[in-house]
Design goal:
single chain; elongated; 83% helix; 2 domains; mainly alpha; ABC transporter transmembrane region fold
């Protein structure tokens, strides 16, 4: 339901089933191409079997086209899901702000609420989109890669016991390092919104006292701090 009380449309059943199946099918076809390529080399090129090369190449082309179709469908459905979720989050945030008490209004200033409704909702939308296009595929590709590695060389695949924990540890270290920077970045985005709102509200006073240069420098400093947030 939107802020005006109108019922929001829901996704049809084929959309809901597509959300679950399209990313999984796209990821399931990715490990097939290297396997077919190895068969072409081992059984086609080495033995000079042109018919086998054409036959296996046709299967590889068909699998690639199916994978491309599933990927496009996953992006399309993921985008619709992310946009629908963002619409509902913004509507719910708007309704919740309308129910704020006087104490709440003094605690949360307007720029912060604007940032929560716009920037934060957009980030949630991107997470949902990445979930359908990348995160769902990742475990399928990982499992498929492990199976293919064991199938090709069991002893060499034991290196995965060392590589996977190291990769997982590296990801955790990167996430732990980025988390406090993200908090700082959100605070500086709020600062930008506050300055912009103050300057737009008091533009006549700023011009009357010839404070354009000082206000521009203040905004430039805040903008520079926001730009350096990921590395500071």
């Amino acid at each position: 339901m939107d802020p005006n009380g109108r019922e929001l449309p829901t996704a049809p059943p084929w959309h809901r089933s597509g959300y679950r199946l399209a990313p999984a099918r796209a990821g399931a076809f990715q490990p097939i191409a290297p396997l077919l390529g190895a068969d072409i080399i081992d059984h086609g090129i080495l033995h000079g079997d042109t018919a086998f090369i054409w036959h296996t190449g046709g299967i590889m082309l068909g699998a690639t086209l199916v994978q491309m179709g599933c990927s496009v469908l996953a992006i399309y459905l993921g985008s619709r899901t992310a946009m629908a979720l963002g619409r509902e989050l913004r509507a719910e945030t708007f309704r919740h702000v309308q129910r704020f008490t006087t104490a709440n209004r003094h605690h949360f200033d307007a720029p912060t609420l604007i940032t929560r409704t716009t920037n934060d909702v957009t980030q949630v939308q991107m997470v949902v989109l990445l979930t359908f296009t990348v995160i769902v595929n990742a475990p399928i590709m990982g499992i498929g890669g492990v199976v293919m590695a064991i199938r090709q060389d069991t002893q060499l695949s034991l290196l995965l016991l060392l590589v996977v924990p190291l990769l997982f540890t590296l990801i955790l270290l990167v996430m732990s390092a980025l988390s406090p920077r993200h908090v700082i970045q959100q605070q500086r985005i709020d600062r930008i919104s506050t300055l912009l709102r103050e300057q737009l509200t008091g533009v006549r006073v700023i011009r009357a006292f010839r404070r354009q240069g000082a206000e521009a420098r203040t905004f430039d400093d805040a903008n520079t701090q926001l730009r350096s947030s990921p590395t500071s």
